[in-house]
Please model this.
Amino acid sequence: MTEAIANVLAQTNHPGLTNTEIDRVLEQVRVTSEMGSNKRDRLYRTLHNAQVRQGCGNALGAFVARAMAPTRYDNDPRRFEALRDQLNAVLVLHGYFVNNDGKLAHGTQVNTLSEAAKLAGELRTELNRRDTHTVLLQYTKEEVIVNDLFHAMSEAAKSVPDRVRTLTGIGLDGADLYDEAFGTNRTPPKLFINSFDTASLISEHKGFKNLLLGIHRHHRNPRAHTTRHGSTEARIDFYDLFGLLSHIHRRLDNSHTLCCACRPYGTNLHRGQLQGVDAHAMANCTLVRSLLSGMVVGQPSRLVIKPAI
Model:
């Protein structure tokens, strides 16, 4: 347990403690620092030997309490949460956890890494704090439980084309799917993220399609042709990707398609043809709503939607 704690608190990168911070805490708990091959080894040797000399674990508990005192992180509370989550992910294997006061406390003990990850809930806790879209949480539930960043990012990227297929009924993938759904220079869109009735909104629509293409080429395709072996995923990249994909799913939440009643007319529906469109379509179809809006403000009687790309 001492080594696990040292590996977290003395990790090389953020949010680990610096050498200066470690020395300061050791001084506060009256433990003399010892030599080590690196920061983590030094802290482990120091705390281990102190416990051997004292014949108890007081030195370890005191160090954790000082190092994790919430007042130390007044200006960076996220660092405290990150360290506590990482500590709890390993301490649960020993029947301990770090409480809100930053102190070691007895808790439930588990015997497997998957049980430990599920109980500690490090990734899921942070994703919830960031208001991650529920679709992503559903697609990556198992991967997040076992802290499998590689496959979680892969499954998350797959959620976008799956969502577009569900919304449109188009059975394609990749660029073919996005061309069919969001339109090209020769074909009109079937799925709209806005009212698509000004140059600015049309430009936004094009940009959204290009964003999906970029994610497909940058995140999904490479992982589809590689394995987890030898791959390293930084947590900050993991959280950033989930933030971007959450934004995309929120835009898809408010997207619209041409209703079945409008599709026979393409994108050149006349006001007179609205008689054949049922009430539900008139309330939910982008084309019908835009045309009705044009009737109210005296716009031309014919709506022609330009190709998206």
Confidence is low (pLDDT under 50) at residues 265-282, 295-309. Strands lie at 96-98, 104-106, 191-192, 256-257. The chain has 15 helices and four strands. The CA atoms of residues 20 and 26 lie 10 Å apart.
